[in-house]
Design a protein that fits this description.
Strand content: 35-45%
CATH topology of the largest domain: Immunoglobulin-like
Oligomer: single chain
CATH class of the largest domain: Mainly Beta
Strand order of the largest sheet: 2-9-8-4-5-6
Low-confidence stretches: 8-26, 252-281
CATH architecture of the largest domain: Sandwich
Length: about 280
């Protein structure tokens, strides 16, 4: 029998160790873990953990949120599915199985770092785990509300407008646009909301815009569009618009501009309108 110190024996041992470390060699590995990065409050979530045992049998598949284990699947056990109590975790036992775990009624307490752990059966008992994070958000209940003192403005005037955005967690990103072009953030001020009692409360926020108007802000028809937008990246994007005009202009139809103020034409404005109609005829 070859001695352990023999060069040939050393070479064989080295080759075995090298083969065991190469990709594709026998061993447990998770090939895909699916945990949504962002989830809305109240939604249902499907967690998936797909693995390759390289020919071995599965002893157990375990799910953790932080340091709390909340799910275990053991195919050879008399009770294959075991659910453990964990704050913010509600497992749907009926729809959960080996590779998919269903969580109902997601809340902010459900957020955290999720770990899937796969353990092979005897004789190796090898295991592999992957970790990923899930955030939980409150989506605003409606669109933003835009308010300003009037709709007719002249170049050189300082326009002041407020846009109130519904509460969200995390807070919405707030942006202003004029004629579709983004206004510099330096032109607006975010009003800090008053705090509310209760850990689960979240409040609306108001952005105050101060903008010196220029003639270039208005089209040849004397029109301008002011827009405020609220976004929660990936899940929410809503906006509110108002249509501004130069004094003496109003929009009667999308493609027709009439001179005059108010809802009717009076005096000289009536004469001008009559002349325009006759010219068109």
């Amino acid at each position: 029998m070859a001695h352990l110190g023999h060069p040939t024996t050393k070479l064989v041992i080295l080759l075995v160790l090298l083969a065991a470390s190469l990709p594709g060699s026998a061993g447990v590995r998770i090939v895909e873990m699916q945990v949504p990065p962002v989830v809305q409050v109240g939604k249902t979530v499907h967690l998936a953990c797909r693995f390759d045992l390289e020919g071995a049998n599965l002893y157990s598949l375990n799910w953790w949120r932080g340091s709390d284990q909340f799910y275990q699947f053991s195919p050879s056990s008399p009770e294959p599915i075991i659910v453990y109590d964990s704050p913010g975790i509600t497992v749907d036992r009926r729809d959960s199985r080996q590779e998919v775990v269903v969580l109902r009624n997601i809340s902010h307490a459900s957020a955290g770092r999720y770990k899937c752990e796969v353990l092979a059966d005897y004789p190796s008992f090898e295991k592999h785990s992957e970790i990923t994070e899930m955030k939980v958000i409150d989506v605003p209940s409606g669109p933003p509300r835009l308010a300003l003192s009037r709709l007719q403005w002249s170049p050189g005037e300082v326009l002041r407008a407020n846009c109130t955005f519904p509460g969200a967690r995390p807070p919405s990103e707030l942006h202003w646009y004029i004629n579709g072009k983004k206004i510099s953030p330096q032109s607006s001020l975010l009003v800090h909301p008053e705090s509310k009692k209760g850990a689960n409360d979240f409040v609306s926020r108001t952005s105050q815009l101060t903008l010196t108007l220029r003639s270039t802000h208005f089209t040849t028809g004397g029109q301008a569009t002011l827009t405020c937008e609220a976004t929660v990246p990936g899940v929410y994007r809503r906006m509110a618009k108002v249509y501004l005009s130069l004094p003496g202009y109003k929009t009667a139809a999308p493609s027709l501009k009439l001179y005059g103020t108010g809802s009717g034409l009076r005096g000289g404005a009536t004469l001008v309108a009559t002349c325009l109609v006759l010219l068109l005829l």
